[in-house]
Each structure stands twice: as structure tokens, then as C-alpha cells.
């Protein structure tokens, strides 16, 4: 393992997430936000600068579906690569930190698999990690790190599904915006707590609120009302219900 970077509280970086949701199964409670990864040899990028870090978790301009938000998520800059071995990953898996990959990932600004390799190599070398064993859940995290945890726990194939869950939770929790709900979900994951599933049914008012939380307004409501031959309120309710179901809008 060749890692010349000292351990530090890195500025959070996140992986740009994809938009393919074809065939994505609906997950059980909390599992839609967790990644399962096992790789023998990992070649990865260390944390670098982030384009648009200040906008972490903020929604893009409205698109026709939750998947359209993907293009605006932060991505990492090109940086030197470091290779971790199967021995590094095995050392991490056998350590008291085995359940803390996500916590380490957001502190270092890495994806979870890379964080496992880096931590395993550090433990083998006798280098201290950012927190003591068992202290990951009580460590202090920034809002950016909590948001990063939401993205790091997902995968490219589940991004749209994860967004739909976050939108539903934002409505259920009365959040001011979806990014606030994402950060709350990330905080639960960092505390190793169960993430509740979004509701399966909503009131008309909640459907209309979802329409606004995604970033749509009067202009889009009027456009849909004309297309669907309805009043704008009914169009907002119908459109919000579609978004909460993970469906596209004809916009």
C-alpha cells in the first residue's frame, strides 16, 4: 500500500451518482441507504477538491424525474490513485472498526470500500484512526459529512430510488427541503441507527408539498394542468404523487 497522506478530517467529497433505476427492487426499512461492497483489490482516488462543495445535497433545477437530479450532485476532482490490497481489506474486516466504514469514509472524504482499505493499511502499520474503537457513533460530524453519508451509502443503480425515499421522508418529517432530509438520513446512518422507510401513502396536501420540494412552481403546475386538462391544484397533487412514487413527469 502506498499512501503518503496523513490522516485528517478531510473536507467531505462524494461520488457522482448515476441515474439508472431500471429493475431496482424496493428495499426494506433502512436498507435503501446502505451499500454492500466486497472487493479483493481496490484501486481508488484519495480525497481531492470538490466542485460545488457548498451545494452538497442541494437539488438541481427541476427535471422530469428524481433521476434528473443526479447530474447536479458533487463529484470529486481527478487525483492520484492508491492501491489497497486484499490484506488491507481483511485487516479492516477483522478489526473493531469493521462496522465503521461509512463513518471513516465521510471523515476522510472517500467511498466506503476505499475507506476500508485505508483503515486496514493504517491498522497494520500501527497508525491511529480518527476515533477510538466504538466511538464512531458518538463522534461529531458536520452537516456536509452527514449529507455525504447519504450519498456514500447509496449506489449508482439505486440513486433514483434513494432520492424518492428521501423525498418521502422530507414530506413526512416536514423538512424545509430534500437536502435537509438527506442529511438527517445520513446522521442516522452515522449513528448506526435504523432509517425509517418513507410512507406508502400521502394526503393531497403532502403530494402537493412534494411537488414544491423538488423545485417545481406555478409555471410547471400550469403546464401540467393544461396537459392533463385540470386545475393547477389538481395538477400539483397528481404530479407530487407521481414523484413520491418515483415516476417521471411529462416536463
What does this molecule look like?
The radius of gyration is 20 Å and the shape is elongated. The chain has helices at residues 86-93, 101-108, 112-125, 143-152, 159-173, 178-190, 204-213, 218-228, 232-244, and strands spanning 42-45, 81-84. The longest helix is centred in the middle third of the chain and has 15 residues, at 159-173. Strands 1-2 form a two-stranded antiparallel sheet. Helix 2 crosses helix 3, helix 5 crosses helix 7 and helix 7 packs across helix 9 (232-244). By secondary structure, it is mostly helical. 41% of the residues lie in helices and 3% in strands. It starts with 41 loop residues before the first strand and ends in a 7-residue tail after the last helix. It is built from 9 helices and 2 strands, in the order E-E-H-H-H-H-H-H-H-H-H. The protein has 2 domains: 31-190, no CATH class; 204-244, no CATH class. Residues 2-64 have low confidence and may be disordered. The relative contact order is 0.17.
